[in-house]
Design a protein that fits this description.
By secondary structure, the protein is an alpha/beta fold. It has two domains: 145 residues, 3-Layer(aba) Sandwich (Rossmann fold); 92 residues, Transcription Termination Factor Rho, Rna-binding Domain, Chain A, Domain 1. Helix content is 43%, strand content 10%. The chain has eight helices and six strands; from the N terminus they run βαααααβαβαβαββ. The model has no long low-confidence stretch (mean pLDDT 91). The structure holds magnesium ion. The site of magnesium ion has 7 residues, from loops.
């Protein structure tokens, strides 16, 4: 695809789910892990104020779901054991229903943290990601991440990739604390936080609404379509299939001087 108008791009801003990482990793690995481990996690940690507060928030959300007629599992608060079992059953129900609620996200993040730390979970990326990161860094470009997963979870994903830790390539991690991913303002804010102009960024995502929001903010942006084989006809010239298509030129030996400006 044409990259003629990307001459000023110095920073690659990347979505994770569906872009650097298969969506299956979330649905087939992370969600089932949280579902399997929520009971043992709560038995160990429910006395901690932060976790207890999450359980209280889950109970409130359970009441709202009942009122809305969503038929979540009943919440029993008659004893500590019943409260814990209610929290487990309701959390598993929320995971099955792909809830985007904050209490679930926070609880999942804490459960995953343990799995990444003890080696039960490893981050997954598409095979073109590590070589693209190396290539872009050799080209003296910056790499930043913008995902709805918490910045902490993002770091864990890239730190624990089996082929090696990728976090040393990544200059910044942005999550929804910066703003939602479909709002142009979020992209302007990220540019400002990096001290750069929006047109110095190329944003890559599998979500058309995000690609459009970044474009409105003044960034270059491109849709990443992982669903079609590389050999298939492009849906449009504005979509890519792998990161191999983005700044593919390998740095030549005579560009090594770029690493040594004093020379
Ligand atoms: Mg995505």
């Amino acid at each position: 695809m044409s990259s003629a108008n990307w001459d000023r791009v110095r920073i690659l801003l990347l979505d994770i789910e569906g872009t650097t990482t298969p969506i299956d990793f979330v649905y087939q690995t992370l969600f089932p892990y949280a579902s399997r481990n929520v009971e043992s996690f709560l038995r160990r940690h429910i006395a901690e104020p932060e976790v207890a507060a999450l359980v209280t928030a889950l109970k409130a959300q359970n009441g709202q779901d009942h009122e809305a007629g969503l038929q979540p599992p009943d919440w029993q608060d008659s004893s500590n054991e019943m409260r814990l079992r209610s929290a487990v059953a309701y959390t598993q129900w929320l995971i099955t229903n792909d809830s985007k609620g904050t209490p679930l996200k926070s609880l999942q993040g804490k459960i995953w943290r343990g799995g990444f730390a003890n080696g039960e979970l490893h981050g997954e990326v598409y095979p073109d990601i590590p070589r693209a990161f190396t290539r872009w860094r050799m080209q003296l470009r910056e790499i930043c991440i913008y995902s709805s997963g918490s910045a902490l979870a993002q770091q864990q994903v890239f730190r624990t990739v089996i082929s090696g830790d990728l976090t040393s390539h990544i200059a910044g991690f942005f999550d929804t604390q910066t703003g939602i991913k479909t709002a142009p303002q979020s992209y302007k804010k990220i540019a400002a936080l990096r001290g750069r102009e929006p047109e110095e960024f190329l944003f890559i995502s599998d979500a058309a609404a995000e690609v459009e929001a970044a474009r409105i903010a003044g960034m270059h942006s491109v849709l990443c379509d992982r669903s079609t084989p590389a050999s298939a006809q492009r849906i449009s010239s504005e979509s890519i299939h792998t990161f191999d298509e983005i700044f593919p030129e390998q740095p030549r030996f005579d560009q090594e001087d770029a690493f040594n400006p004093a020379k």
